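Quick board copy: two proteins, each given as sequence then tokens.
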Amino acid sequence: KRLAIFGRRLAITLMAVCGLVFTIGIIRGEPPLIMFLTALSLAVAAIPESLPAVVTISLAIGARKMVRQNALIRRLPAVETLGSVTYICTDKTGTLTMNKMAVEEIYVDGKIVRSPEFGVLSLKQDQPSTLLYNAMILNNDTANGGDGRPIGDPTEVALFVAAEKAGLDKKLVESRFKRIAEIPFDSDRKCMTTIHEVPEGGFLSITKGAIEVILDKSVNVLTSQGSIDINREEIAKVSERMAADGLRILGLGIRRFEILPDGIHPRDIECDLILIGMVGIMDPPREEVKEAVALCRSAGIHPVMITGDHPITARAIARRIGIIDDSGEIMTGTKLERMPMEEFEKKVKDIRVYARVAPDQKLKIVKALQDDGEFVAMTGDGVNDAPAIKRADIGIAMGITGTDVAKEASDMVLLDDNFATIVRAVAEGRHIYDNIRKFVRYLLTTNSGEIWTVFLAPLVGLPMPLLPIHLLWINLVTDGLPALALSIEPPEGNVMARPPRHPKENLFAGGLWQHVLWVGLLMGGICLFTQALAIKNGFHWQTMVFTVLGLLQMGHVLAIRSERESLFKQGLFSNRPLFGAVFLTFALQIFIIYAPFMQRIFKTVSLSPKEFIMCIALASVVFFAVEIEKLLKRRGS
């Protein structure tokens, strides 16, 4: 967008300059045809027509690099946009964690059991452990895969594996207690219910969900002495203690029916439950996530965790990976829902963890951050996540667990569902934007050098320094390969050690336009100095000016490979394609100077060794001037 606006303004300005050059030439008595061709050639040379192609190629190369790192870019501009991200709002399960859940603790009959006790394959005896393990396997859609591994939702797989370890066989249990109905999980109810026939007669509903939801729907708790009134405070304390260890807590409740009510509706089934136990599931953080979070912080990016887990569980995981400290504030979905948007916008920058959040509330978080001027990346996998993904500046869908709807709404798909992949993509986005700035700096500076050379020569009383074909040749050679080679320049060491750039930041911020102006003027001044010196000494001045201008641009492209680091520190061969492009351009310049048939085409003459050495010496001035500029920047910081 910025380049499109700049291109329109540049075209208008250059047309005016070229018209002025033509007019001055005519006033001085230059042949009209020559001045027309010169003005036309200058316009062609000055407009960086290769810029759109180089930008597109750079973005495409970046997208290819990212897909190798498991980040699939669906919209090409997102490659560059990633460099502006200030907040990364991410799901916990599978993104910050390994999504390989395992049952760590079970609370049943008033005590915490760490090692599964073998259940009894019967629901006739109302023993808590018996009912709990049977409920874990009955209220479960996990199936055995062809390789013997369970397939299904990671949470349900964890319950399935724990029940199997307790000695239960899913097929056998399901054959005895046939499922006749199901009320699927949804984000509003935060629970799932299945209804089964009991061999001894009647029906049994099993409800599984977040412990506070099941606790709120329960009136009794099952113990070895039978069903007794529930002590909500005691159950809540136990669940908080389990959650403080980073466990995700699920509650399971049952209800018996002699006759099912007409129509299977949650309000009739999911009430007056008997709590039979709680299950604590651990989903350990990914090993690389802690480092990725630290890298975000050093880059001025705020990672935000959004989860449906209990606030205490969310805090434990967030502390472990470095998202918050002991004093960090956590906001629940219930509080978020009640809070007016105006009030939330005042607090949103202080919140790093959201717990018990429904997918539709992600949209509120994105809007609040964007209204405060932040640039937001949002992850999601479900259908309900699509609005938030679509609204975010960078929408990110999960490649493994994500739905087609979420992927269609996204700008980027994580093929490995890993938070660290997002951070790598952001680093690559910053790297690509840096390279775009480098070849914008290069193209505009070299083109301005050509303009100043042709524009100022008549004003200082010198003849037209270059022929139209010289301008076209320099434009053809210097605007092509070197600019493309800059697009694959390796990243600088500080790419993730600086804050994100503002999304509305001008492309020429950070001293770029000043560089274009003073280096362009320096190039023009050197060319005119070369012309005046050569005329005075009887040298082949036009060929020398032609050669100096071409070599000046090669020295410049080597010097701007970094905005701060010296080329001598980077190494001449650290970007081999660029070195090859410079070498090829140098060889072609020698070829058209000394090859007889090229001399006829380009109106050049063979330079003497003295003249050629003088050209190289004068052309090196810009290289050393830019190196001094970078030295002053390093010392100034």
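And the next:
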Amino acid sequence: MSTVDELNVTMYSIYANNMKFFKQELPSVYNTIATLSMNINSGICTERYSLEFVEGYFDIMNLADSTYYYATNTYEDGEKRASQIDLSKNGCFDLLYKDNTCHKLSEKFIPKAALPLVKFLNQTCTFYDAKLNKIYKQIFIGAGIGTHIHEMYKKFKPAVSLIVEPDTEIFRLSMFVVDYTIFNNKNSKLFISVGDDIKERESIIRNFFNYQDYMNYIIKYYTLLENYNYITDEISQVVLNLNPLSFSYDLRIQTFSRTIKYVNEGYKFLSIDKNTQKCYENAPYLILSAGPSYGKNINFIRKHQKKFIIIAIDTILGSLEKNCIKPDIVVSIDPFSGVPAAFNKVLHKTFLRNTPLIFVSHTDREFVESLEKRNIFFWQAIDIGQNLGYSFGSPNVGTFAMAISVTLGAKEIFLLGNDAAFDQETGEVYSAGGVHDTTYNINKINEAESVISHTDIIEVRGNFMNNVKTTRKLLTFKTNYEGAYSALQAQYNFRAYNLSNGVYINNFIPLKIEDIKIESFNKLNKYSLIDYFNNIAKIPFSMNLSSDINTLSQIIVKVKTFNNKKVRNKNEFLEQKLELILWILDQNKKMTMPIFGYIFIDFISLINLYVNFALNTNQPTFQKVSNLNRLKHLWAESLKSLIIELKLAAKGE
């Protein structure tokens, strides 16, 4: 057999082995590659690239112009790229929030139970130039021929890998060169996104991120081509959205505690399902948020308000009153004490006298008690009890309003002020007259590429314009709307129109105000919705959680026992910690409500980011047994504080 024949046999053996592996472990990748191969063989599509063996190495030729993808020795190129990657935090998604100096952990947003541990790490660790002992998670953006991926994997042997290649044909050629089975064995796990649209790609990125999330404190990434930077941006957005600090466990505890108190005090909870008699079922619903497009179209709203059921968010109430626009429903999801500022903008108490106020059940208690009880209706923020009716939690008040609309029977929803971007001329985030006032420098350049920040300014597809500038934080609203739309469409049939001159949101039909056929809309014979809500709302029975409280007491005893034991090394600490976590998860099965388990998992996801980072640095701090036991003690004390908080919440205290 000639050398060429032997080479061909080896190539096709690698390819066949990869296909067998994908069929068993990654069937979506297998189907994508199999479909492409079938289409090429049957002539449905034409090959754009070919795999060429050039002077002892493989390269990819572009058949349109006979140029090479690498035009250099790909094996040497892979080794060179791998040599440039080290165990520093350069080229990493860093989930540990730092202060302004980047030398210390930020203590500003850390929940109370975790704060002593974070302060201890600030006293004993260096974060600015810390190097890791091991890379546990790694992302390869762009596969190319695959040699650099192979070399980097051999160098770091990450426990979890993600490969993202938007070009299916390029990835298919790499399958003749690289054996991808080595990335997925008893000690490692592989995720792959090949030729996916943005929705599919983000789903795989989320699966990668959620898998063994205790490793997420530092995620190494490598982008092969500059024109794949948009994928790096997509991953950055997912990382920010899923960071445990984005909606921390302490907010869940607060929600649980306040909900129990509202139940015990006899407040009404909305219970709406498909069998509930609907009102205004065929009316168009207009959801008003505080983005720049709301203020720029205030005249349209005022003129045609009687042709829509208007659901307004709390922050624009003062502006609505000033412009003589009466909302049919007001919604609020803010758990903080700043909520009253929105209502204080209202000058006359009669403005909202007959308007139902729908709050998520974590709303500030002092504020709620300042309002008329007859106007207030609650909605579960998280699933605490089935007898409390429907739950739909969202960090975005606009998506909360959308959920209310469809459960009330809306078939057509028009959204205005949901820009998810600042004003492209002024940099203002909110319309004038609202509670908030934030302005961005639209010409700002992001200085540190390796640091992901909510304030990073990026360009994305616009709803009416080709591109608009926004920040990563504002872009989370787009993600919220897309997620809410998918969840609600699974239960309800409706169409949503985006009237805002901001970010394009998938599945929301772009529609300019002037293109609405408003003359075909009938004037609605409106009446107060308070009576309607009173008929469908319920006052739940008080909750007896004594058995849950007893279980929590048993967990505290177990944590104290754990805390009293000394460890001799890191492995001993990790083993004992894991054993305790598994025991607590088993106790959660006894609980009457799933909320306890959710909060515990959220806590562990957050606190382990810090502990696991500290134990994986090459700093000598935790080679000292005394420091290691101090870290163990603080971890246990944080856990004990959490359980005590849960007990108080369950008691309604």
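Board note added afterward: Residues 447-451 have pLDDT under 50 and may be disordered.
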